[in-house]
Amino acid sequence: MCSRLGASLLLLLVSLGPGCPSSLSRHSEQVRSEALKRLLEVFGMEDAPQSPHRLRQPPQYMLDLYNTVADVDGVTKAPDLLLGNTVRSFPDRSRSQQFQFFFNLSSVAKSETILAAELHLFKLRGRLSQDILYHRQHFYQVSVYQILNSNNTSTAEGHRLLSSRVLAAHDSTWEVFTITPAVYAWTQDKASNKGLLVIVQTLTGQQLNNHIVRFATGRDHHASKQPMLVLFTDDERRGITASTSLRGKIFMIDVATETPTLPHAKLQNRNTRSLGFEACQRYPLYVDFEDIGWAGWIISPRGYNAYHCKGVCVFPLGQNMRPTNHATVQSIINALKLANGVASPCCIPDKLFSINLLYFDDDENVVLKQYDDMVAGSCGCH
């Protein structure tokens, strides 16, 4: 029998929904509980995030990044657009002066591979002050340090340099600094996370105060300009796609279409209909996150079309069914009754696409995560 566990699971969840009728049997409730548990495993989670329903707006950077890598349904536009399969954003949690920042990275698992980490600071336009008139300089060096000793940040032993660059005093824009070594150390030893220190100097090395070069803070400026740490990781959760096993074949499938449009497909459909069967093809299967009870923490998409494969793979298998050689031989053995207990080939996805979720985690951090093998791109007989 062909396995359709994934499609059946999604259909069950969508049909049951969070507001099940009171007349549902205990067995049905148990099945729903197990189905939700299994679905969380598919999404790499032990429990659904319990964060409040969008108490804050997601950073514009994360929204723009999501729209860059995903279409309106969350389906990945192209492979390799995203560095790794997870992007996390962390707001500044410090309560100290403007030039010190702290980010809580407790939600990052040690098993995740750190690929890159960036400090995003929104630089405010410099004020015209006596300092500027005195120094007569319009460019300053901004350096980011990892704090090693929070009790002594004024000495070389108290911090180490991570990134440095020259900025114009009067520009107002986002500035991005690479801080990967510090974040790697923090994820391996959470106690080592003392935060970051930013030092502004003239090009001759004279340290300046925050009246000349200023950065927006979460406390004093709009939330859209708050300091942010962006972390790119990979948890190495890669599915085994049908396209991987069929690497030698290239199928141009339009995700927006509901059925494959290949040569002789209509002829094959007519032949199977005359026998009272529907040929193997792709059908819509919309997964609504609100029906599942996940709308409170998922930012985008609101749902997606997973599609599912349905139909028979009758002898003879035409090329429009994209059969493997094994499926062709199996269909012949089945049709000629050359062996007992040999079923006809299965109608299953032979091309799978990934989707992207943008969501809040338990700490109200915004996460962009890519999940493989979530959308059936096309169907074939295997």
Automatic annotation (TrEMBL):
What positions does the domain TGF-beta family profile occupy?
270-382
What compartments host this protein? Secreted
Identify the GO cellular component terms for this protein.
Answer: extracellular space
* Pfam families, per the entry: TGF_beta, TGFb_propeptide
Q: Where is the signal peptide?
A: 1-21
Q: Entry's Gene3D superfamilies? A: 2.60.120.970, Cystine-knot cytokines (2.10.90.10)
UniProt keyword terms in alphabetical order:
Disulfide bond, Glycoprotein, Growth factor, Secreted, Signal
SUPFAM superfamilies per record: Cystine-knot cytokines
> GO molecular function terms here?
cytokine activity; growth factor activity
Q: Which PANTHER family match?
A: ANTI-DORSALIZING MORPHOTIC PROTEIN, TGF-BETA FAMILY
Q: Tell me its family.
A: Belongs to the TGF-beta family.
This protein is called TGF-beta family profile domain-containing protein
